[in-house]
Amino acid sequence: MIPTSSQQTYTDLLIQYQPKPIKTEEEYNRALTAVEGMMSGELAEAETALFELLVLLIENYEEHHYSMGKSKPVATLESLMHEFDVELTSLVEIFGSVKIVKEVVNGQRKVTQSEAKSLAKFFNEHYSGLSLTDLDFGQREN
After folding, report:
1. Environment class of residue 39 by beta-carbon count within 10 Å: exposed (0-12), middle (13-18) or buried (19+)?
2. Separation of alpha carbons 111 and 101, rounded Å
3. With pLDDT > 70 as the criterion, what percentage of the chain qualifies?
4. CB–CB of 108/65 below 8 Å?
5. pLDDT digits over 71-109, tens only?
6. 35 Cβ partners below 8 Å, 6+ apart?
């Protein structure tokens, strides 16, 4: 990427924002304000990289200071289905049958890696503002 006069390089942005691990509530609020400001427009490549870094720092701080425990994949799926009024039949293409969807939702069957990827893709494509990954629906296989 060749920076134009309106675009800053990643190094310029790092100097401007000076991101570092967040240790205080004041630093946390400053990072939140920066991220919220970046969400209002289209970001250049360097801005996107800084945005992602700031989000990671915020998430790390929140995990240590506002931890609510790890969500189970089934709870995540149930919550999304409820929030967006998704019927079991809407997920048949991912799981193959309503029976399997019911087994997953009831916790009788784990989500496979490929199903987890498909679920993330399904929700991200159908409901704007989401940025789910396969890890939201299951563990990565080694």
Report:
1. exposed
2. 10
3. 89
4. no
5. 578 888 988 998 889 999 999 999 999 999 999 988 889
6. 51, 54, 55, 58
Q: What percent of the chain lies above the pLDDT cut of 90?
A: 53
Q: Looking at per-residue confidence, does 6 or 22 come out higher?
A: 22
User: d(Cα 98, Cα 105) in Å, to the nearest integer?
Assistant: 10
Helix/strand/coil (H, E, C) string of the chain?
A: CCCCCCCCCHHHHHHHHCCCCCCCHHHHHHHHHHHHHHCCCCCCHHHHHHHHHHHHHHHHHHHHHCCCCCCCHHHHHHHHHHHCCCCHHHHHHHHCCHHHHHHHHCCCCCCCHHHHHHHHHHHHHHCCCCCCCHHHCCCCCC
Nearest residue to 123 (alpha-carbon basis) of 106, 110, 111: 111
Whose tokens are 């425990």? That residue is 69
Tokens coding 71: 């969500």
